[in-house]
Amino acid sequence: MNTPEPKLLIELPMAMRWRDLDAFNHANNSTFLTYIEEARLHWFKKFDGAWLTETLAPVVAAIQVNYRRQLAWPANIIVGLHCERLGNTSVTIAHRIIDGSDRSTVYSDGHTVLVWIDTASGKPVALPEAVRRACQ
Amino acid sequence: MNTPEPKLLIELPMAMRWRDLDAFNHANNSTFLTYIEEARLHWFKKFDGAWLTETLAPVVAAIQVNYRRQLAWPANIIVGLHCERLGNTSVTIAHRIIDGSDRSTVYSDGHTVLVWIDTASGKPVALPEAVRRACQ
Amino acid sequence: MNTPEPKLLIELPMAMRWRDLDAFNHANNSTFLTYIEEARLHWFKKFDGAWLTETLAPVVAAIQVNYRRQLAWPANIIVGLHCERLGNTSVTIAHRIIDGSDRSTVYSDGHTVLVWIDTASGKPVALPEAVRRACQ
Amino acid sequence: MNTPEPKLLIELPMAMRWRDLDAFNHANNSTFLTYIEEARLHWFKKFDGAWLTETLAPVVAAIQVNYRRQLAWPANIIVGLHCERLGNTSVTIAHRIIDGSDRSTVYSDGHTVLVWIDTASGKPVALPEAVRRACQ
């Protein structure tokens, strides 16, 4: 196990959608997880190896999100992911959602713990090498 | 500030929807926040006083969610909320999602920090008395 | 091809969710399709044969929805599906969303055209016998 | 009442999201309404007059959608809206969703009937002049 300097994994610009708003007229709290997920999946696609096979799949084990500022429509945002901690069977990824036209405006931050599971047993396995390489 | 014994605030039975599934054929991680929100809003409606006014509104300040077990469709779940900590300007609510027909099956737990804001300034205010009463 | 008397396929009671609301504080137009889909999938599960195989899957070919009345939270609704027309490769299903405590209150009606496709080619195939039986 | 030549109202490029997929691994049928809505709202924002006031709000009266081709993630799409029919109290808007990098690939088409309602009575009113101007 080691704790690397946080490494930037991806920065994904995204457009908010009007449907992301809830009845309080701001982006719903659950939508932030969809933004973070979108960046995560785009990061997976950049791996130099498989992130999803017949027998292996990534799952979110835990997530922590701070809501720093309300987000109104329309808005362009940037979702940034950093590798925070690389373990044997899990990787912790810091997320940060900032404004697309003013990077000093932070809407949200926090971190996600990902594991890869054996799809038959549902149990976590050692992190695939492609994941380890993508974090280092 | 005090730290009461965790008090059960509400238990809400809910039916999962097929659309809650994502391409991995399990309930998407963001959907759990929608389940928790649904229980929270039903709890708000039970208050013996206003939880939403022209000038006051609740917002999620932070959320932490552990995903303990994958959730497949169809399923009936129960979302339980407990008061974990009652502060001056925030309340921390523990959430727990269990199976509707087997309460020992835990899909998720964690906690949410709620604040009430002045809708004009966006700043947190002292917790409304109705919230304090609902937690004690 | 024949045109049977409309046959009731299923009536599914559902609870609306707060997240179904949009910034206009009523159930979003897209959400009605999720309600209709939920009833449709529960209907599929009642078939006395396969509705989904390695090579066959149902897809929505077209949908038409009339929004008769705004739907506010909280609400219990009932989604009813009827077989409207049974063709060689498609089935047209009428949908109707009514109030759970007042069946004369109609929120929406319309119809959906379903086809079953060969998952390899993406082309419609003759309707599976289990579908035909479920409609007659 | 008149029936103008279809007038292009807006073309909005959008990025699909992974969460738009359902368990069949293609964009869910309800999501197409969210794409169409996003273009519609961006069109509203271009009006040279109010589209939403204390007393007036647009609502979808009916929608018809043809699903021409399955949509997989990731994808960039373009949502185009045309004015199809301008009535006294309703406007019919044709929608068309095409591929962002190949305009000849059509994922969906159909049309939406919009009305503006008096928010107190819920009844349709004469179309606001800003809407009429935006369609002509």
Architecture blueprint of SSEs:
Four copies of one chain form a homotetramer.
Chain A: E1 7-15, H1 31-45, E2 56-67, E3 76-86, E4 90-99, E5 106-118, H2 129-135
Antiparallel strand pairs in A: 1-3, 2-5, 3-4, 4-5
Q: Unreliable segments of chain A (pLDDT under 50, ≥5 consecutive)? A: none
What do the pLDDT scores of chain A average to?
Answer: 95
Number of domains of chain A: 1
> How large, in whole angstroms, is the Cα Rg of chain A?
16 Å
How are the strands ordered across the major sheet of chain A?
A: 1-3-4-5-2
CATH domain class of chain A: Alpha Beta
The tally of beta strands of chain A, per DSSP, is: 5
Number of helices of chain A: 2
Structure description:
4 copies of one chain form a homotetramer. With 136 residues, chain A is of the alpha+beta class. Chain A has a single domain, classed as Hotdog Thioesterase (Thiol Ester Dehydrase, Chain A, Roll), CATH 3.10.129. Chain A is 16% helix and 40% strand. Chain A is built from 2 helices and 5 strands, in the order βαββββα. A 5-stranded antiparallel β-sheet of chain A has the order 1-3-4-5-2. The longest helix of chain A is centred in the N-terminal third of the chain and has 15 residues, at 31-45. The first copy, chain A, is elongated and about 40 Å long. The model of chain A has no long low-confidence stretch (mean pLDDT 95). The interface between C and D is medium-sized, with 21 and 21 residues.
In short:
4 copies of one chain form a homotetramer. Chain A is built from 2 helices and 5 strands. Chain A has 136 residues and is of the alpha+beta class.
